[in-house]
Amino acid sequence: MKNKILGSALMIAGTTIGAGMLAMPLTSAGMGFGMTLVLLVGLWLLLTYTGLLFMEVYQTARQQDVGVASLAEQYFGIVGRVLATFSLLVLLYALLSAYITGGGSLLSGLLPQIIDEQTTLKVGILLFTLILGTFVVVGIKSVDGLTRLLFIGKIVAFVFVLLMMLPKAKLENLTAVPLDNLLVISAVPIFFTSYGFHVIMGSINSYLEADIKKIRLAILVGTLIPLVAYVLWQLATHGVLTQSEFVALLSQDPTLNGLVKATSHITGSTILGEMVRIFSALALITSFLGVAMGIFEGVGDLLKRFELPNTRGVLTPLTFIPPLAFAMFYPDGFIYALGWAGLLFAFYGLILPIGLAWKARQLHPNLPYRVAGGNAALIVAFVMGVIIMVIPFLMQNGILPQVAG
């Protein structure tokens, strides 16, 4: 596999695998491993499919280095651009604010106390953003290099966690059936955001110079890595903990920390908790890099559209100052926005690429590359996208059961 393809695949995987992966077993507690596996594979197929749709539509782009919002305007006019830009930037600014807060908190724990805890936290947030933001500003090649290094660390930590947990897995735990079949439906919106690599498709297209074969390989490899990691992690946690232990865990401490305590107790090792924390930190950093790169590309695409300066000196403050300000002074604003992140991603990662592909196929019937499945697959994927967007409202109204996320 050539160097850039591997780098692109790791950027896709790095953006996809976040620290939230470790809390996924809490969401699937009442589902059992069997249905969790079905859900993971089904959503991988759906979101890999829509990622490939973006690639298909990029064949028709007027310029090689345009963002997804420019494609949306090309096919749906200014309304398409506004919807694509709004959904992308609100989603990414909210995520980046959360990553900055989390990363700053981790870093502040390593710093000597400056005046008081709040001041130390703010210094940690600033340093975290400054250090890692520099890689994004330098360009995608530097993000590629850092992601490769961090990915090795993530793999080592993850393998260590699995080696401690998998020997404790029991077959009777893995064959448990769902406590409530509706829990599987409720878990869909939370699980599907775990395949959210679509925000860097514009950057990947430019980095691989719009080469269809290279981009396709990068997407397939880059999404298979998270799928394998998710399945192994669920296999370990579902195998170690019985369903009754899962439910008890949720009632006592429905957080990642509670899961770490329970698994540490069962494996008899305090090292496990520390390895989970290391993995969480590395996963948070690689997700930060991917999301920041997505904003950099999205804002640059917007400025280019209106013929405004889009140099790195202009893009840097527009990328980092809004989420940094909210992380330091108004965290509740973006925490509220994060509550709608799943809905925004459902539009950006499902509805938008399906709509673009539908229009592109009408206007360009002889494209060199078409994603398999034809228009029938587009319709099925669209229906699934609408259902995913409706599920949170059904949960709010008590029609579907609540799950942890």
TrEMBL record:
Membrane topology per record: Multi-pass membrane protein
What sections of the protein cross the membrane? Answer: 5-26, 32-54, 75-100, 120-140, 149-167, 182-205, 217-236, 278-299, 311-329, 335-356, 376-395
- Any single GO CC term annotated in Swiss-Prot or TrEMBL for this entry: plasma membrane
Could you name the domain of life of the organism this protein comes from?
A: Bacteria
Has keyword Cell membrane?
A: yes
Q: Which GO terms describe its biological process?
A: amino acid transmembrane transport
Q: Which UniProt keywords apply?
A: Amino-acid transport, Cell inner membrane, Cell membrane, Membrane, Transmembrane, Transmembrane helix, Transport
Where does this one sit in the cell? Cell inner membrane
InterPro entries documented for this protein: Amino_acid_transport_2, Trp/try_permease_CS, Trp_tyr_transpt
Spell out the molecular function terms from Gene Ontology.
Answer: aromatic amino acid transmembrane transporter activity
What's the chief localization of this chain? membrane
State the protein's purpose: Involved in transporting aromatic amino acids across the cytoplasmic membrane.
Family the UniProt entry places it in? Belongs to the amino acid/polyamine transporter 2 family. Mtr/TnaB/TyrP permease subfamily.
Give the protein name, as stated in the record.
Answer: Aromatic amino acid permease
- Organism (species): Muribacter muris
